[in-house]
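Consider what follows.

. . .
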Amino acid sequence: MTISVKRFFNDEYVNTASYDNLRKIASVVDGQKNAGRKILHTILEKNVKDEIKVSQLGSKVAEFTEYLHGSLDNVIVNLAQNFVGTNNIPMLVREGNFGTRFTQEASASRYIYTHGSAEFFKLFNKQDGAILQDQFFEGTKIEPRFFVPELPLLLVNGSEGVSFGFAQKILPRSPKTLIKLINDRLAGKKWKDKNIVPYYEGFGGTIEQGDSNNQWLIKGAIKRISITKVEITELPVGYDLRGYLDVLDTLEEKKHIQSYTDKSEDDKFKFEVVFQSKMLKEMTDDEVLSHLKLIKKVSENYTVVDEFNKIRVFNDVVEILNHYIDVKLDFLNKRKSYMLGKLQLDIDVDQSKYHFIEAIVKGKLVVNNRKKADVEADLSKMKNIITVEGGYDYLLNMNIMSLTTERMQRLADALKDKKSELATLQKTTVNDIWSETLAGFKF
């Protein structure tokens, strides 16, 4: 079979490119690419809170979500890593070697263990499962199109990816700063800052604005010890120990420095560098940093996949945060409506059970030695009795030991609590719901 070049580009190429975007570009809503979302979905639905080998978890995810693209081990490791330059909030727990700042490569997946972290289960509300947009693959329900976590994880942990014609490069931001900004907007306050400085948990250097709005200078840190010697106490994010030793070796070979001593230990970088006589005295600190390759220029690219699975390009992080808040508030309204409906149904069902038992106890309804259809006909004429799924089986299947005055009292107590909960939820705004949730995070 042959197809024209035009048809190939309009059909096959476009479909392939669109799917590749979902795999390589993270969502503005939940901060995940396709593979990461499948992993988090499996952990949430299977309630994975006990240790499991990374290799076994990958197999479980592939089976549960119809993943078709090879091993998930590296994606799982990436979701768990917590050394400087990885996740500000890891989604998974680490048991074993998941890599360090000195040596970023993790041990083999069959030797390391993981499970959902406490923060993950706080960030992803399982009650949202009923309001998320379901997806199906060949008739099998898989992960939703996106989750709606309590924080904008795309900004919390950052993301990077390259796809067909698009690239994403978003640096991480401080969870504490993001929470404050969200609370300010919920309270109707205007944001003073027009840009949000990137943040890496545990990083001891500095991050400054570059030549443009989307460029940042990530700087290491030095301390002058003498007129010819400096101590390096921090490297820009991205270096491992071997990588920077190679830099120093090159500088020494080219006579740009006289010598160096590596004093790094316990995943903390520390080097003493000796300069040629008088050279150091004539240099500013920024010139020293540049000379030692300790300034890294990074330009962000604010390309995302939006809630409609379409590529969208924002101008800055503030736009991304505002968009995330809009989507989150919309889904909080959906969650509130769902919870109100569920509570009201629970109240109606409990009321039905109460009046059903009351009618039997007081002899107003006879069930024994009667046809089911006749009993149902009587129930249809009673006030405060509802059908569930089109019938009364939820009442007629009740255990005979439930048909007591004691059971009626328990139902009355439960009804009082649920009506109070309903009234409270009706009065609570979605802004208040979200603010209360955010108050539970301690970063």
User: Anything to note?
Assistant: The chain has three domains: 16-171+303-315, 215-299, 330-439.
